Amino acid sequence: MSLVGVLDGTLAARWSLGFEDLALLNAKPAGTRLGFAAQLMMYRTTGRFGRAAGEFPGAAIAYLAEQIGVTAADLADYDWLGRSGRRHRAEILAHLGFRRARQQDMRDASAWTGSELCPLGLPSSEMMERLLGWFVERRIAAPGEEAVGALIVTARRTFEDKVLEAIASSLSPEHRRGLDASLADEDSATSFSDLKADPGQPNLDNILMAARRLAFVKHLALPVADVRI
Description:
Layout: H1 9-15, H2 19-26, H3 33-46, H4 58-68, H5 83-96, E1 99-100, H6 103-117, H7 124-137, E2 140-141, H8 145-169, H9 173-184, H10 192-195, H11 204-220
Parallel strand pairs: 1-2
């Protein structure tokens, strides 16, 4: 049974080869065509290359194999990380019209990450996916995932520093004295470590202690800081 008629729209849209793609593939040795096609379609949609067959959905590989006229088993012998694999990746970038990232691109990517991604509080994996999408939209070949991950870490740290600076700048001298006293007095029930501690089981003593801590925080009258960066 042909897979073309049973694939869902998302898979078909993401893994369907165009005429120019097929022309490029037909110039390749038959045994390498499926791996080349898988790398081509992976990079086109995600901005990264696969490093092993297991990174690709089985249904997508079957669909690609049918379009090319080979079997899915051909993927087992593909040279993912060797010389031919590196040559294929370079050919794919040229075919898709991607250029190498420049220093200004990396600065722009860092700025975009700080302004658009960091405020969302996303996990690192989702930030990575969205940032790679940023490179794809601009037809820029992103550096390796290690370098992109380092960019995310740096952008997040810079963003957090700016947030903390914004909060600190909103505090009056009186607010600072109250907070400093809480941080300095570790033996007090209103020390910073006790304020953030679990209140414990719901008994009278713990309820009274929690009420004291809440009263202390209310007495600080901390301002609502505008931390928009």
